[in-house]
Design a protein that fits this description.
Layout (H helix, E strand, L loop, with lengths): L7 E6 L6 H14 L4 E5 L5 H11 L9 H25 L3 E5 L2 H11 L4 H12 L6 E6 L2 H11 L12 H17 L4 E5 L4 H15 L2
Parallel strand pairs: 1-3, 1-4, 2-3, 4-5
Helix pairs in contact: 1-8, 2-3, 3-5, 4-5, 4-7
The structure holds thymidine-5'-phosphate.
The site of thymidine-5'-phosphate (TMP) has 11 residues, from helix 4.
Length: 213
Amino acid sequence: MTDPEKGLFITFEGSEGTGKTTQIQRLAMRLEKNGRQVVVTREPGGTPLGEKIRHLLMHSKSGANMVPRTELLLFEASRAQHVDELIKPQLARGAVVISDRFHDSTTVYQGVGRSINGKSVETINEFAINSHVPDLTILIDLDPEEGFQRIQDRNTDPPDRMEQENMNFYQAVRQGFLDLAEKEKYRFLIIDGNQSVDEVEEVIWNEIKERIK
Ligand code: TMP
């Protein structure tokens, strides 16, 4: 039996191509080796309904004319379902839940990138997360020029709808994350994404091993 008092909620954030997904896999393996139950999930997505919403947001032709308010509400709809169906019950049974993106992505992509009023974004974020603020948020910081280069080097898929903005958008997103991390220092760990994959893994593990003792 796992201890319900010890559930831990970790989120990974950053702009495109920062290596979050690789680091999440590595962290999950290390945690499992240390005897923890781990649930890896992502946003948008993480539940069957959320994955359908992800498709609408990122890949469907029907999303081509999506206005920013619709985009915001779809990310939040996916999130509300994710929190109730997966995150909350898994934390309650004592698992470590690691999510590839969560509400900070909305604060930054929709609030800063799409210029939606910050107060509205905050209110609807709070409504969707229903008090499930992450215990720790790992921000991998990298120049988006470098991030997109890495994406190009590793896959030939056409860019999804969220990857089609100009570089100013992603530079604003990068800065938005750094500003948010400064404001909510107590839960953020900022990591320099220019380091090697192994180095980033070590920095993350050093932080987390203290928390799971
Ligand atoms: P990713 O799974 O490859 O990170 O792609 C998700 C995309 O969706 C990425 O461009 C960030 C964006 N996004 C938002 O704009 N708002 C959000 O709330 C979330 C979770 C993601």
